[in-house]
Amino acid sequence: MRTLFAILVSLLLLTSGYTANALSSVIQLTRTNHPKYYSFLSIKTKDQNGTNGNLTLFRVIVTPPSGVKPENVSGQLSACRDGKLIVSCDVLSRKLERNSQDVDASVKDRSVALEFSISSDCIASSKFAVNLWEPDGPAFSNYWFYLKDFVDAK
To answer: Do residues 150 and 43 lie in contact, with contact meaning Cβ atoms separated by under 8 Å?
Structure first.
């Protein structure tokens, strides 16, 4: 009986020291909450003429909060037409150009851009998500928005 008790106590002590904690959040950005609470994200659009019709260029600038490295930022586009998913793809982040005027010079070295073009007739039901991965664990923050909510935010 003592051996069984000793084994149970040992297992309890071993497993109690190895707990995994992860806190992730998923937040929808809108015209009203974006500028007030999530100003580290900048969403800009620009109309383009493509070979197969009108396109809209989206440029999402992310200045990660302290502790999140620029390489821990990723994006995902879910392009839909008439409510049906056409394609879902990753959008890679890249460092800002030296002459970029998108952010203040003091944070330019840790800011990244996520850019993609999409057909104007897909904007109504398409979404984009920005993921900020925590550097030391599985936790992340996901900020997503409908493209139609920001298409005229010049």
So the answer is: yes
DSSP secondary structure letters along the chain: -HHHHHHHHHHHHHHHT-------EEEE--TTTHHHH-TTEEEEEEEEEETTEEEEEEEEEE-PPTT--GGGEEEEEEEEETTEEEEEEEE--EEPPTT--SS-GGGGGG-EEEEEEEEGGGGGG-EEEEEEE-TTSS-EEEEEEEGGGTTT--
Interatomic CA distance for residues 126 and 146, integer angstroms: 6
Model confidence at 13, pLDDT cuts 50, 70, 90, reads: very low
Residue listed under structure tokens 């394609």: 87
pTM exceeding 0.70: yes
Residue 59: other Cβ atoms inside 10 A: 14
Strand partners, 28: 144
Dump pLDDT digits (tens) for 139-149: 788 899 999 99
pLDDT in tens, 15-56: 555 555 557 788 888 888 877 777 788 888 888 776 666 899
For the 25-149 domain, the top CATH level (class) is mainly beta
Q: How many alpha carbons lie under 13 Å from residue 102 in its C-beta half-sphere?
A: 25
Pairing of strands 140-146, 25-28: parallel
